[in-house]
């Protein structure tokens, strides 16, 4: 315990960036040595010019990635899963850059097997070191060291919320001393935690060590905020503001950018608004659709068309106007699963619906009825993965009942989606069913990645084989 106390007293956080980089370089070079031993049984071929160049490049690129990608940033309330995900992303960036160098320089003496050993070793060793580092910090903080003392200005809902977050886990390393406010606390339970009004803050911080001050009062109290800012600057207290937009959105993906020196806040981050992300999704959509169309359609399409015609009179395909990106309508194609009826554009299919044909029930259960939508993907009106497109009538009615319903139209609709693989597909019997579906669709828009699309495809295929209760 004496060692922990001494480490905490040294306040090494100011040197953390340098220590982090040096430690990572030590791990990287240890992984290089281990990769040679695993591949060759000895440190051979290290004298080759090509090998030396790549080893040097590996070190330089990792330093650049660490510094430019903010890899050394560890927020006290950040989950370890987030830190590890960031680490894996940086390793893949490093691997891609090294692979490009090897290919461009045509380095044939670089062993691909040895490189595979290196990245496996580096990933495992870095993973263990990150876990060990976080465990050490948690142990230190759990023993009462390396804590930051905090006061909250504003005994309101926002102030109580930040206090709850900082106090949730002892290992975060925060000690909330109490609240200051000129008004009565909005909740009786905060009365005992009141330290005084705004005028008493100055005397308090002179007598009590305070590391951080969280401002949770209204932004229109300009003079008060200016005085508190000056007070913190004079006493080396880091000041942090709790913006008021939390009253309007619960999203964790808000994004702040600057127009000149004016901050502009967007309620949600949309990865697909980025050119590279949109292009990569487009390439994936076209590539995946072509694989399905060329690999499955030549033999499955004629069979399904024949069975549909034999099962019931009417056209093979069913087409319907649905809501697409930016709420623009488009023609969505499906295999016909119902008897031809006048209510198909207004009434959802229900359990035991008499309109559904025998062949239609099978196709709905297996999602085969959605296969023609791969042509919609090629035409650019849909994506493989995205929020499911709804009938125009449903869009009109639900947009009046659910405030954020239209947000799901920020991106192209999909053949399958995050809501569907989480159980929200088919009939929406109650309004809460649609609200939950919309929440999942918005989460997808805010958290999109190609990995997520692949994950949804996997679960969609798995559900096709095991069947779903709501698929009728």
Fraction of residues in helix: 40-55%
Helix-strand category:
alpha/beta
Silhouette: flat
Q: Averaging pLDDT over every residue, what do you get?
A: 84
Radius of gyration: 29 Å
Summarize the structure in words:
The protein is of the alpha/beta class and 472 residues long. 51% of the residues lie in helices and 11% in strands. The chain contains 16 helices and eleven strands. The chain has helices spanning 2-9, 16-40, 49-68, 80-105, 112-142, 157-167, 201-207, 222-234, 275-295, 297-311, 358-366, 373-379, 392-401, 418-421, 431-447, 450-466; strands spanning 148-153, 174-180, 194-196, 212-215, 238-241, 255-259, 262-266, 317-323, 329-335, 383-385, 414-416. The strands form four sheets. The chain has a five-stranded parallel β-sheet, sandwiched between helices. A two-stranded antiparallel ribbon has the order 6-7. A hairpin with a 2-residue loop joins β6 and β7. The longest helix is centred in the N-terminal third of the chain and has 31 residues, at 112-142. The mean pLDDT is 84.
SSE layout:
Elements: H1 2-9, H2 16-40, H3 49-68, H4 80-105, H5 112-142, E1 148-153, H6 157-167, E2 174-180, E3 194-196, H7 201-207, E4 212-215, H8 222-234, E5 238-241, E6 255-259, E7 262-266, H9 275-295, H10 297-311, E8 317-323, E9 329-335, H11 358-366, H12 373-379, E10 383-385, H13 392-401, E11 414-416, H14 418-421, H15 431-447, H16 450-466
Helix pairs in contact: 2-3, 2-5, 3-4, 4-5, 9-12
């Amino acid at each position: 315990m004496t060692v922990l106390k001494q480490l905490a007293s040294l306040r090494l956080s100011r040197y953390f960036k340098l220590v982090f980089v040096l430690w990572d370089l030590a791990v990287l070079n240890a992984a290089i040595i281990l990769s040679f031993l695993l591949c060759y049984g000895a440190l051979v071929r290290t004298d080759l010019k090509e090998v030396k160049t790549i080893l040097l490049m590996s070190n330089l690129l990792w330093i650049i990635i660490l510094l430019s990608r903010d890899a050394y940033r560890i927020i006290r309330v950040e989950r370890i899963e987030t830190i590890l995900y960031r680490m894996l992303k940086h390793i893949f960036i490093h691997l891609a850059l090294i692979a490009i160098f090897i290919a461009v320089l045509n380095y044939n003496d670089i062993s691909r097997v040895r490189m595979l050993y290196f990245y496996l070793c580096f990933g495992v060793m870095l993973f263990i070191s990150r876990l060990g580092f976080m465990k050490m910090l948690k142990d230190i903080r759990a023993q009462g060291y390396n804590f930051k003392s905090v006061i909250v200005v504003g005994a309101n809902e926002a102030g109580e919320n930040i206090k709850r977050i900082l106090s949730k886990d002892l290992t975060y390393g925060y000690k909330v001393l109490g609240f200051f406010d000129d008004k009565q606390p909005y909740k009786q339970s905060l009365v005992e935690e009141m330290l005084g009004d705004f005028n008493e803050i100055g005397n308090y911080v002179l007598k009590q060590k305070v590391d951080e001050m969280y401002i949770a009062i209204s932004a229109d109290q300009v003079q008060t905020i200016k005085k508190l800012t000056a007070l913190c600057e004079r006493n080396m207290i880091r000041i942090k503001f709790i913006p008021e937009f939390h009253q309007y959105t619960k999203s964790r993906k808000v994004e702040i950018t600057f127009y000149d020196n004016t901050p502009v806040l967007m309620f949600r981050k949309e990865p697909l608004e980025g050119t590279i992300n949109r292009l990569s999704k487009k390439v994936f959509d076209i590539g995946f659709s072509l694989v399905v169309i060329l690999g499955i359609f030549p033999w499955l399409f004629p069979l399904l068309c024949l069975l549909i015609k034999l099962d019931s009179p009417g056209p093979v395909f069913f087409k319907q106007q649905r809501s697409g990106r930016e709420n623009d309508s488009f023609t969505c194609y499906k295999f016909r699963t119902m008897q031809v009826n006048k209510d198909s554009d207004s009434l959802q299919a229900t359990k035991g619906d008499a309109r559904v044909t025998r062949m239609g029930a099978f196709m709905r259960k297996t999602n085969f009825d959605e296969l023609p939508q791969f042509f919609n993907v090629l035409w650019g009106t849909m994506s493989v993965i995205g929020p499911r497109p709804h009938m125009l009538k449903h869009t009109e009615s639900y947009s009046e009942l659910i405030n954020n319903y239209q947000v799901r139209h920020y991106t192209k609709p999909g053949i399958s989606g995050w809501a569907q693989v989480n159980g929200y597909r088919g009939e929406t019997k109650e309004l809460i069913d649609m609200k939950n579906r919309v929440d999942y669709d918005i989460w997808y828009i805010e958290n999109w990645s190609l990995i997520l699309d692949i994950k949804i495809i996997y679960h969609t295929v798995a559900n096709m084989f095991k069947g779903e209760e709501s698929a009728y």
